[in-house]
Structure formats: structure tokens, C-alpha cells
Amino acid sequence: MTEPALAHTTEFGRMYSRSLSEPPAVPSITTVIAQGSTSLDGWHSYMAASAVVKHPGLGQALGNQAQLKTIVKEASRASERYRDAAAERGTRVHFYCEQVALRALDQPHELAEAREKLAENGEHQFADRFDEWWQLYQVKPLAAEITVWNHELGYAGTLDLVASIGGRLCLIDYKTKNTDRDGQVKQLDDKVVMQLVAGMKAEESLVDAGRGEWEPWAYGEQPLLLGVAVGQTEVRPMRANPDVLPQHWYKFCALRRVWQTNYDVAAAGRALLPIAPPPVQASGAHAVPAGQPAHN
User: What pLDDT does 69 receive?
Assistant: First the structure.
């Protein structure tokens, strides 16, 4: 995703401020959702093992401890390299999608530059498929990359797109996805529903970051919530089931409390303090149990 003006990277995750001159005050929607993340230990292990097996120097390194150690060290960072590369690709794809919307809104855009950047990385198919989807669904954008705020619960976030499709108001979140063996874009994670319902529950939207100007949120009245998987072979939009929105909202509220608890625990100070041994008693003296008088 692109970098919103009021978003900050902190030790407590991504947080948002009310203006460019104010410190971060609330967690982002994605930071709140991340409080419920499950362990990725198995995936990290698989990526490391796969990197070792595929390493071009593995054959020559067999029997050489020093070379094997170097290969293992490189492989241990395989998941980090994959994650970073995927994040960079996602940023490029999101930027292109944003520029398409800005052009349609007759606002300043960098569409040509965004497409060229994708082409430089061999990713032009993402743009091709997105353009096809945009035309097929006759997307009419209302706002792109719009930052929202909820005071009651205390969070903020940035929605990829607010648009009208087939006469319906839609809140849209893009997810860049790989393609499976059958040539289909991979499935969206259900967490996108939490992300979208949190956006729907916003109370304000940003007007001007520099001045810290906000206005009442205008798009929260029963919009259609769409997660859009953008891949190299297809774009697959999925709507959030309206019957499950309350449960996903309650889960988001619970995770917001988890974030607050973690924040409060960290802000409270050190949890463990050093303790010195008891003083050495004089020779011949006997310890007196607490609560009992000493006798001469």
C-alpha cells in the first residue's frame, strides 16, 4: 500500500496523528488486526529449508562446514526477503490502482510513471488485469486513498477506494495476490472483512493533513464492502457477507482492547527489577524471624 501522510511507524506498530504537526495518537486498522495474528513459524521454516535446497552452491558446499554455514545464514533470511519483496510489489500495484482512480477523478496523477515502474519489474500484467476489471465493472471513483478516524474506539486507517459500482456505494480494499497452479489468483484472507468494516465504522475523513482538517464521514451508510484481489492473471472481487459484519466488528473491538493493554503494559515501566542478596549478618548473630521480638 502507499504511505498515508499521517501514518507513523512506531514501536507499537503503525499509528496515526491528527495533523502533520502532531504526534501519533491512535493505532492503524491494520495494526489492530495484527494483534490477532497467528504464528508463522512453520512458514519461516519452510522458506529457509527451501532456500537451502535451491541454493546453487549447495552441491559444492557439501562436506565444507564453512560454506554450509554461509548458505544456512543466507537461507535463514529467506522469509524476510520474500516478505520485503512482496511488500514492495504491493506498494507498486496499489500506487498504480490509486493513479487510475485519480485520473478518473480529473485530479493530478502519475499513471504513466506508475505503469512504467511495474513494467520495469516485470509486473505489467497487474496493470493490464486491473484495467480490464475497472472497465468491466464500470467503476466510478468517489475518493481514493482516503484516511478515516474513529474517536469512540480510537483508531484510524486509509481506505484504498470509495466508488460507485452498478449504482451501489462501495468501500474497496485492494490485495496484491500471487497466482496458483491453475492460473487463478489466490484467495483473500477473511481478515479483509474486519479491515473493511472498521473503515465503514469511521466517524471522520481527512480533508487536509497539514491543517489537521477533518469532516464527518460521508460513506458509512450500508455500503457494499469489497475485497479486490489483484493478480497477474485476473482480478477477483469478493463482497463481505453482510450477515457476518457484526461478529467481525466485535472481534476488531476486542483486538483494539488487546492493543491498548499491550501499550499500557509497555508504558507502565519495567516488569522485572533486580534484587540484591540480603545483608551479611555479624558473626555469631542469629537471624530473627519476622514478627518475633529479639531476646538478649
Answer: 72
Grid coordinates of 48: 529457509
The answer for residues whose C-beta is within 8 angstroms of residue 20's C-beta and 6 or more apart is: 5, 6, 209, 210, 212
Centre a 10 Å sphere on the Cβ of residue 121 and count the other Cβ atoms it contains: 12
Whose grid coordinates read 532456500?
51
- Separation CA 205–CA 223 (nearest Å): 16
Q: Phi and psi for 215 in degrees, rounded to 5?
A: -135, 160
Q: Return d(Cα 100, Cα 94) in angstroms, integer.
A: 10
- Domains of the chain, by residue range, sit at 7-266
Q: Distance between CA atoms of 142 and 8, rounded to whole angstroms?
A: 26
- 8-state DSSP, 289: -
Helix locations, 6-110, DSSP H: 29-34, 41-54, 58-61, 65-75, 78-104
Q: Are 88 and 108 in contact (CB under 8 A)?
A: no
What sign does the dihedral 104-90-27-208 (CA atoms) show? negative
Q: Which CATH class is domain 7-266?
A: alpha beta
Instruction: Give the residues of the chain that fall short of pLDDT 50.
Output: 296
Cα–Cα dist 150/217, whole Å: 10
Q: Which residue do the cell numbers 450477515 mark?
A: 243
SS3 helix, strand, coil % of the chain, rounded to 5? 40, 20, 35
pLDDT of residue 237: 97
Distance, in Å, from the CA atom of 242 to the CA atom of 260, rounded to the nearest integer, reads 28
- The residue behind cell 518475633 is 292
pLDDT of residue 189: 95
Tell which residue, 252, 206, 197, has the closest CA to residue 227: 197
Distance CA 196, CA 191 (A): 9
pTM: 0.81
User: CA–CA separation, 187 vs 236, rounded Å?
Assistant: 9
Q: How far apart are the first and last CA of the chain?
A: 78
